[in-house]
Design goal:
mainly alpha; 14 helices; (2E,6E)-farnesyl diphosphate synthase activity; isoprene biosynthesis
């Protein structure tokens, strides 16, 4: 059985073992009589789509549940926490490619492993809710980008915050902790403030992402940022539009969204003139202070630990 030790590599390899088990169960699902070709197609599609990246969201369920429980997880508990973690990784794929098949795998996993649990219905409800929020956030992002291409004045902070909250924060930050709370026998209605803290953390995370896309070291973050040429409703451009004088506004409107290095350099020069690096540093400092204060106001020490573990992973990250 998979290892659930504290060693990061053991934890990750144990989590990947559960993926292999879930995949095998889905490929042997008695609800559909797979041909061999069909089974191979699904297996290749799953392996290509689901288990890539850092797996932070899925592993956060395991980590959060362990902190709430206060000791090592049994093999059964590790399996269940990992199964929910993998369901979250599946949600992320749906946000990207709206795969109907992938969407239908989630209730199959939940039914197989959680049907007898008292929180089964709450889990189904939670995943349905967060999937709807994530898909709606994705839609809002696409619509806003489309409108922004003809009218940059659409890129305002309230619009940006709404996109980020629904597209990223619910599934990346709230969903892993909500899963762990349900497994611990808690009622999510009692954790509205925890939800709000996690949504704010998710917004802070996305602002960091947007900043790193522009000013991060490509060798550290592992990619070259493309928000400027992709006409993204990025935190950077929202802040710049809010501060720019007439000249700077002209430079942004003439160069933003163009896949030309000269245009990208001109936009970044405006960002530097407006000291958006300083603006970001101040945002990071005040966000951290506000989050710590909100976290320490939580009555449960275990919940505080969970929230602080999330914040520690993202504060002043470089990638």
């Amino acid at each position: 059985m998979a290892s659930n030790g504290t060693n990061g590599q053991d934890r990750r390899s144990g989590f990947l073992e559960i993926y292999a088990r879930l995949k095998s169960e889905l490929l042997q699902d008695p609800a559909f009589d797979f041909t061999e070709d069909g089974r191979q197609w699904i297996e290749r599609m799953l392996d290509y789509t689901v288990p890539g990246g850092k797996l932070n969201r899925g592993l956060s369920v395991v980590d959060s549940y362990k902190l709430l429980k206060g000791n090592e997880l049994s093999e059964e508990e590790f399996l269940l926490a990992s199964a929910l973690g993998w369901c979250i990784e599946w949600v992320g794929m749906i946000a990207v490619n709206d795969g109907i098949l992938l969407r239908n795998h989630i209730p199959r996993i939940l039914k197989r492993h959680f049907k007898g649990k008292p929180y089964y219905v709450d889990l189904l409800d939670l995943f349905n809710e967060v999937e709807f929020q994530t898909a709606s956030g994705q839609m809002l992002d696409l619509i806003t980008t489309h409108e922004g291409e003809t009218d940059l004045s659409k890129y305002k902070l309230p619009v940006y915050n709404r996109i980020v909250q629904y597209k990223t924060a619910y599934y990346s930050f709230y969903l892993p902790v909500a899963c762990a709370l349900l497994m611990s026998g808690e009622n999510l209605d009692n954790f509205i403030e925890v939800k709000n803290i996690l949504i704010e953390m998710g917004t802070y995370f996305q602002v960091q992402d947007d900043y790193l896309d522009c000013f991060g070291d490509p060798e550290v973050i592992g990619k070259i940022g493309t928000d400027i040429e992709d006409f993204k409703c990025s935190w950077m451009v929202v802040q710049a539009l809010d501060r720019a004088n007439e000249n700077q506004m002209k430079v942004i409107s003439e160069n933003y969204g163009k896949a030309d290095q000269t245009c990208i350099t001109r936009v970044k020069a405006v960002y530097k003139d407006l000291d958006l690096q300083g603006v970001f540093s101040e945002f990071e400092r005040t966000s951290f202070e506000r989050l710590i204060s909100s976290i320490e106001a939580q009555p449960s020490k275990a919940v505080q630990e969970v929230l602080k573990s999330f914040l520690a992973k993202i504060y002043k990250r470089q990638k």
